[in-house]
Amino acid sequence: MQRRTAKTLVITLIAAGVCAGLVWLISYQILPKMTGKMAFKQLLNGLTLGLMYVVIASGLSLIFGLMEVINFAHGALYMLGAYFGLTLFKLTGNFWLSLMVAPIIVGVVGMLLEYSTFRPLYGRNPLYHILLTFGLVLIIGNAAEMVWGKAYHLFPRPNGFEGTVGFFGITYPTYRLFVLTVGIGISIFMWFMLKKTKFGLIIRAGTHNREITSAFGIDISRYFTVVFGFGVAIAGAAGVLMAPILSLHPHMGDGIIITAFVVVVVGGLGSLSGAAVAGILIGLLESFSVVLFPAFTGVMMYFVMVIVLLVRPQGILGVEEIR
Amino acid sequence: MSVRLSGLLRGTEKSYYWFLVLLFLLGFLPLGTVAGAYSIFYLRFTTELLVLGLFALSVDIIMGYTGLVSLGPAAFFGVGAYAGGLTLLNLANSIWLALLVALVLSGVAAWVIGYLSIRIRGVYFAMLTLAFAEMFHELAFNWQSLTGGSDGLAGVPRPDIGIGPFVLSLADPYVCFYFVLAVVILIYYGCVRLVNSPFGRILQAIRDNEERIEFIGYDVRAFKRRSFVISGMIGGVSGCLFALVRFVDPGILHWFTSAEALVMNLFGGMGTLYGPIIGAFAFLFARDLISSYTEHWRIILGIVFVAFVLYSPQGIVGLSRALMERVVPIIIRLIRTILGGTRRESALSGVGESGLYPGNQSFSKQEQEKTDDGT
What we know:
The complex is a heterodimer. By secondary structure, chain A is an all-alpha fold. Chain A is built from twelve helices and two strands; from the N terminus they run αααααββααααααα. Chain A starts with a helix and ends in a 12-residue tail after the last helix.
């Protein structure tokens, strides 16, 4: 009885502390620095960034769900997508063409990699895949350096999306709105593909239980290459989309892969809706903390991850029991 | 999902001590510098190799002996380096105090990270440790007032060590070399004792069959956590030594540092204690050699690395063992035929093979797993 009261007291104290902290945060840190318009702008920024995280992380999550492989090279392939997009853009001068074709090339590269290097390692410890993909990061990063050089490249915004547009009292770059729309489009497409098609049904079944799916006469390993190719292709698409907002350099994928991992962990491993929620959450967090606590922007995401893991170790929407 | 490390080597009692002898023999290295056979640069380089070998060894404890794949060992290396460097800069110019602070702080960091992440198994654990290490990386960058941001810690002093009446300065490369070598030998010997102790046996049993150990009644999580803390503390010590031989900047907390530690383990052969140290030597020598010829050393290293993962996951130690198993019996047979041995005798020597070299077992087990792909 005594212990229970003590525990309740501790919990109450912690809760009171958290509430006091929040009140202090809102009244002294957030309100003085924020206006409604600015908040709206950061909301849009956060959504754009968040949707790109969703796209990258859901590819990672899809690959992990089906093959139980952590693809460290995901960030490198995202970078490759941006560079392929740049080259195609320079060759043809057509942004739409490069947005369509670059992800396909990245997908093909991914499929070749999967077929030649991942395949011999299935059924072995996942560590070997981590190590393998780390080796691939070194190779792809350096190859990009050899082809495109170490310097930063700028990717011009496509025709018709150079300017800004005004609505609800703010002006906002048109291109970011376009990225936002495409991000939503890719997410909806993935949802549709996974939930409404036979292909998606097989993938989901394979994710759930590979043995039983095989027992139904489906050769699930044949789908590995396709899913891997698809997962990295959408990362490549995110690379092309982000290129006009960021600048291109051979190590642009090194940081984003960690963010994608955090998104996957926070959302719940193998859960695509979880990745969507977590991606947007972390995107918003990042865009708001840039304004509010610029010194802690980088740490914020890990802070959220630790809290989520303490409360829900399986992630926000992770249904799978953590073994 | 299975977290078993297939194709893992087992260090044998004899080989542990053979490597200890090798480490002692390394103590003769400065003779060459004194005699002028090679420049002092190689002494400094070997000191650095030893420090990174120690770091790789810390990863082997958690990965090779406990079966936990941690992707964030750089966190402890970095905490140790910053703790040691800051102690030397601000508190006292004493290496013992610096080592102690590094040991304690990295141990605390390892306990907290371990407490939060060991509850979750497998690939999830790997991702979590990675994210925690990145958190330290961000902290080192952003906590300007303490860490100096991206500039790192400038001008970490090289303290003196007093042994009896003698006072030696660690700024002297010879003293530094012997000091680092002594620490490495001490920790290596401690690790040999550790993995052969009842505690170490339980760790290895957890690696081999976690469920069984749980059913026997051991608190698996507590053992994993202890192993994680020990590994973190060794990593912290190696970080502190790194602050002594090189410099401290946030770069050492980048996930590339963690990945390099894994690479060293893979190159050398994990689960043997000495494999990672050999791997560290091989990896850094190769990197140094290739980077002196071409600036694109990463691509060559990456290809070699991928080849190792695909074709020789047991690393250099595994390769040399396999070589020993194939070559040594042939030599024995050759000697016997030269000496006029009969056919019956050579048949007998074939039977004895697997008994002579214990590595044979794990090798054949791995071959087996290659054939049934599990998919």
